[in-house]
Amino acid sequence: MSERYKIAVLPGDGIGPEIMAVGVAVLQAVGPRHGLDFEFVEALAGGAAIDATGEPLPVQTLELCRRSDAVYLGAVGGPQWDTLGADKRPERALLGLRAGLGLFANLRPAIVLPQLIDASTLKREVIEGVDILVVRELIGGIYFGQPKGIFPEIKGVRRGVNTMSYSEVEIERIGRVAFESARKRKGRLCSVDKANVLEVSQLWREKITALAREYPDVELTHMYVDNCAMQLVRWPKQFDTIVTGNLFGDILSDEAAMLTGSIGMLPSASLSRGGTGVFEPVHGSAPDIAGQDKANPLAQVLSGAMLLRYGLGQPEAADAIERAVGTVLDQGWRTGDIAGPNTQVIGCQAMGEKLLTVL
Ligand code: IPM
Ligand code: MG
After folding, report:
1. What is the CA radius of gyration of the chain?
2. In this structure, what CATH number is given to the domain that contains residue 157?
3. Is the CB of 94 inside a 6 Å radius of any atom of ligand 1?
4. Segments forming the whole domain that contains residue 295
5. Domain boundary, last residue among 259, 278, 297
6. Handedness of CA 339, 263, 260, 226 (dihedral sign)
7. Which atom of ligand 1 is nearest to the CA of 138?
8. Ligand 1 pocket, residue 280 CB under 6 Å
9. Both 282 and 253 in a single domain?
10. Which 3 state secondary structure label does DSSP give 273?
11. If DSSP codes are grouped into helix, strand and coil, which group holds residue 226?
12. Which of 134, 135, 250, 253 to mutate to test the pocket of ligand 1 (most atoms within 8 A of CB)?
């Protein structure tokens, strides 16, 4: 008897549909070998949804996601929608999904694969062996805090406002995910904040420190976000698991991604407490190369592995995908973004075909 899962597929914009085609093909190939039967149901999100319905996240899409076992997302956004107001932009689809599904925990692993060391702009000795997990709080902080808005003129001057706020409950729930994750890794957790300036960070630090008593096997340190940005490029191997708020996590996870050579390699998982998760690449929709078969589909494919591991509890099928990515890289196949000496550059679709031959 195979297990049946319903997967909501949201290809989105730009390179989204190209890389999603590869991602879905890989899941389809892996499923039957592990007794998994997938029903893929596609829906609109982002700019594609704006063009078709006027809304970045149509209610039907959110409903489908709620009724699915996992959401597999490509990327959203593009210059043609950049002039729209903040609440009508494609990015709203992401924020709406995150809030609508209660996805407070965003896991962003940044692993330097031995095959790609030369694709990084940093020196080999600095990045060799880097394996960092950024745990980013995803539905609080300055992204969602109130009050927010562009406020009317006072004495002829408007004011733009966002509020960084975290309740103790929000800090504790992301803290727990981070301690649990660190426990399964090398047992080191670095909490990143700006407690030397911000009250919200002082509460963050106090709560995370208190929580550490429940995880005596995890070694907790604290770091200011500006120092963390510096340490990540200076000596990234000092980090195992990082936990931080929404805005700091947005910035630091892009920085951590670049240690690996290309943001085109990085998957992510956004999780709630027991509900449907969203699995998507860390990179964006890359409109400059959309439709040219140049995109690197590996972040999408590896997000499929995270979907299996964290969304459906199928670690063996996830391992199979991650192994296949390693094998194809060992064989020397690369998309342009990760090309290096003695490698062969191929397109997005061909990369998908190579994966299917080694799965
Ligand atoms: C990310 C992205 C999003 C974010 C944008 C597109 C809304 O940068 O997932 O990191 O800021 O969270
Ligand atoms: Mg970002």
Report:
1. 20
2. 3.40.718.10
3. yes
4. 1-109+265-359
5. 259
6. positive
7. 12
8. no
9. no
10. coil
11. helix
12. 250
